[in-house]
Amino acid sequence: MDEHPHGPLTGFTVGVTSARRADGLDALLRGRGAAVVHGPAPRGVAPADDTGLRSATEELLARAPDVVVATTATGFRDWIEAAHGWGYGGELLRVLRGAELLARDPGVLDAVRAAGFTGSGAPGSPAELLARLLGRGVAGRRVLVQSHGEPPPGLVAALTAAGAEVHDVTVHRWTPPEDTGPLDRLLDAVLAGTLDAVTFTSAPAAVSLLARAGARGARDALVAALRRDVPAFCAGPVTALPLRAEGIGTHQAEDSRPGPLVELLCRELPARARVLPVAGHRLEVRGRAVLVDGAPRPVPPAGMSLLRLLARSPGRVVSRAELLRALPGAGRDEHAVETAMARLRAALGTPELIRTVVKRGYRLAVDPAAHTGG
Q1: Among 157, 219, 252, 324, fewest CB within 10 Å belongs to which?
Q2: pTM tops 0.90, yes or no
Q3: Other beta carbons within 10 Å of 120
Q4: The CATH fold of domain 273-364
């Protein structure tokens, strides 16, 4: 029997910053039970319509490079395809074949070779790629870096400092969204801690979210929230770079496809849930919902605030005063606790999960010798 009959992400709310992959990622997340808050951070510019990319290509054709660094397979393929559309395809291939061509990783190397080049692969991280280039010596050489969204952090500056003439050809540039409303709502949810995770499928998405927070005077608050409260899940190590530069820990999928990212979420988020044997039942406290014996029970926000506090110290009596402080906007009225507790018990469908301790407060009816999980 499926351990998660309602989906492994049931009860969790996940933020999605992607624009280009949003439809597929949203569907995969919802199909596994998650609620989704979608705030597209960047808006992609199609390579064929990118006048900046076309100008950079024309400049390359006028002055051939000595070294070409291909950093992404998709970017390299789409650049060649766009050049064919402009009528420059054959000439671009000829110029590139006259240069030393370095591919950032095996996937990029496959794309380079599929285009008819004899390229050489390089280690996976930008730092290792830079070390390889500097080890060969770049002083006085013309180096072209084909990047995706933006060049790998520090690569262009380090090559320039080493004496190279560096030119960046950016494929799949990103611009801010025309409507920032959804992005602001996503940002507000991260700041409020109402998301269980936020996903990034490109480095520009991370840069865009940080920039939007900065424009609103909330960059430091966003960084603090992503460090402490809302884990960031990234599609591959390159996507994670802007976040890691801010000291934000990340969970990284093996590559940039939506599938591995969702599978990573399916492993990590349930492992964070608090699981308790209570009154002969299995109580699982997830981000915004509760599972009782594997069945999701919709609990109102006030009830979730009380339940999370009770679950933090299973079996301990929690006073009405403590519970009152956990209720947003309740003021000093302890009757608000009784009202919220009654609604919580009704929502759980099993009132005996929570015991009233006369004149003291409430506690979870944790089974003897119980231990916490998650």
Answers
A1: 157
A2: no
A3: 12
A4: Arc Repressor Mutant, subunit A (1.10.10)
